[in-house]
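Researcher: Next entry in the queue.
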Amino acid sequence: MATDVQVAESFPPRGWHSDALKFYEVVDGRFVENPPMGAKESVLAALLQELMGPFARANRLGRVVPETLFLIDRARKLKRRPDLAFISAQRWPLRRRVPRTEAWDVVPDLAVEVVSQSNTADAVAIKIEEYFQAGVRVVWVIYPVNNKVYVYNSPTSVRILQVGDTLEGGELLPGFQIALSILFDDGDEEPEPTD
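Model: Structure for this entry, 195 residues:
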């Protein structure tokens, strides 16, 4: 997950570099730049995608996509880009072609946000509310700093998992599970300093 750092009214926003255009959301019709995830956060999101994607495909449950822009509230001109999302075959049939558009006009069933150092508690809370208002069924918020996963079934119903627990796909991805000890496994060695 990234923190809002710059807002613009038009696209592409004046002064934005092409790399910044990869990481934006639209809130109330205004483009909001999001910095990319940090290295550790990217590795966690990639690991989840590597495990969830093939599981969802093999079981014909739906699609798992990374950092895809979704139009989640047309009236508010709200487009959000979760770090990872699952779209069930019920919401978007597997045989239906995914459009070649800036934002996918579907509300994901599961939104996953991996919290980076640049995130604020307010930004995370707002996204959780917006996801549920739009019809997202479950939100996973991953906190690498303390190796915890907050599993939201509504904005006020949360289960907090820690190392020793298992993250499960529940009704959305029945049978999917990953131990948090595996999700948060960094290895035993500290990274070598860089000059």
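Model: Confidence is low (pLDDT under 50) at residues 2-12.
Researcher: Noted, moving on.
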